[in-house]
Input
Amino acid sequence: MGALKYVIRLMSQNLGPVSSVLYQAANLYAKSYMNVNHDMRTNGELYLLDKLARFDIKTVFDVGANKGEYTNACLNKFQEARVHAFEIVPETHAKFMSNVRSDRVVINAFGLADRAGNIEINYNSKKDGLSSLIEGTDINKGHWTTRRVEIRRGDEYCRASGITAIDFLKMDVEGAEDLVLLGFSDVLSGNNISIIQFEFGMINIYSKFLLVDFWKFLEGHGFRLGPIMPKGVDFMGYNPRNENFQGPPNYVAVHSSRPELIDAVRLK
Output
C-alpha cells in the first residue's frame, strides 16, 4: 500500500494536463459517491418521503420553504398531513403562494429562530434559495441586498397553534439551523419531534455550528443521525472526518423512541 501511494503521488505531480484531468474525474466521482446532490428526485429526499408515507405523518414543518417544491412533495406523499410552511423572504414567499395551492398548508410569512423579533436577512435576488441570516457571501458570489424580516420561536408558534407534536421537521435555512432548533427547546425536551431533516455545508463555516454540534445537540435529545443517501439514511456515530463542508448536503435525525421509523428509512 505504501508503494502504491508513492506511485500515485508521483503520477499526480508529474503528468501535467493529464494530472488535472484525472483529478477532475476523481473529484466528480467522489462527489457522486458522497451524494453531493441537491436534486430531490435522485439524492434520497423523495425516497425518504416514500418510506415514511405508510406511517401516520400528520404534522409537517417546512422551515425555509422557499418556492414550495418540498411542501408540494410532502402534500403528495402524506395524504393526511398538514404542512406548516415558513418562508421569511417576501419575494420568495410570493413565489411560494403562486406554486402551492392546498387547504392543508398553513403558510407563514416569517421565520423561526431562537427568539421573537425582527432581524436582517441577506437576500439573493438571482438565487433566492441561498438567502440567509448568516453572512457568507464569499461562498456564493452574486448580488446581495438586505431585508428586514420577522422571526418567532417554534415553541411559541406551537403553543399558539395548539400543536403538541411534530412528526417531521425539515429545515433549509442556510446556516441558521441551530437557531431554529433552540427555538424548539420545549418541544424537543418533551420528545415531541419524531424526525428532523437539516442541511450542512460551507455556510456552517460562518455559522460556526458544525456536525459535531448537531450530533451533540440532537443525540442529547435522544436522536440517531446520519446523512441521506439515495437509498436511505446512513445512521452513524459522529466522525470528525465528515467535517469537510462538501457533502452529503442533507442529514436526518430520527428519535430513538421511534425504532420503526429508523428501520424504515435506514440505508439497506
Summary: Residues 39-265 form a domain with the Rossmann fold fold (CATH 3.40.50.150). The longest strand covers residues 144-153. The chain is about 35% helix and 25% strand. The two ends are 30 Å apart (CA to CA).
